[in-house]
Amino acid sequence: MAIRPGYVARETGNNLVRNFTITLASIMTVAVSLALVGASLMAQQGVERATRRWQGGIEFIVFLNPEATPEQIKAVEDDLKNNPQIDQNGVTFVDKQAAYAEFKELFRDSPEMIDSVTPEILPASFRVEPKDKTADTITALSDLYKTKPGVKQVVSATDTIKLVQKFSQFLTKVILVVAVSLLGVAVLLIMNTIRMAMYARRREIEVMKLVGATNWFIRVPFMAEGLVQGVFGVALSVGLLVIVRPWFQNVLPSSTEFPIFSDLVPASTDMLPIYLLMTVLGCLIGAGGAGIAVTRFLDV
What we know:
Elements: H1 5-18, H2 20-50, E1 60-64, H3 70-82, E2 86-94, H4 96-106, H5 111-115, E3 125-130, H6 135-146, E4 151-156, H7 158-200, H8 202-210, H9 215-251, H10 268-299
Antiparallel strand pairs: 1-3, 1-4, 2-3
Helix pairs in contact: 1-9, 2-7, 2-9, 2-10, 7-9, 7-10, 9-10
């Protein structure tokens, strides 16, 4: 028998309505579990993005006043390079143009903010790698250069970054464990929904097999039902993350209060791969769970 799209759509809709309560429970479980998966990936990506400038051995950054004179900048550079506690090759100067390019990359999701900033108002900076990377040494060096003429601010990472990364890793693992457990529950719910739908139509299925219907002819509408549940779950989970992301961004401290982690929330463009992964997982859970249920029922 040929599988007609109209037949698949009609049978899928009937099955969804017939088991509406269990179908709704399956969709909500898929949505919550996928939202947790997306949140864990968002948190992990946000921490990596926020600490990106500190990778490669950089332990603190000396921000210069935008009005600093060339003489003041040269004096700070010479002081950094001549300091015995600092690696001479570990001092990197970032001018205003480079700072502006980095600013545009970090805030590429906020064009209105980029339009309001020009390279002239951004501070140049020195990225510094000390020989001794212990917290006490870095704190002492940071305090030393805060008082230098032409220096606006010194920001060090050390303990803060390590603490945030450690907490992020722990939180990500906990969320993923909960998410995987809920995904397993979602699969079981979808399987149970499909089995109940097939049991309610067992006489009709027996007649269909007697008149020559193939297993795939019987299987496809039920797999489509599971796929629909997965797709609706994906839509709800993605919508939830779209709403939560800007809210989370608003409750975080501002860049002036907490400059190290001012970019903790990923840009919306960075969320696209996460949304894509959630979509694939939702479709696999829905269609896969339904396929397993149908196969087991037909084999009985």
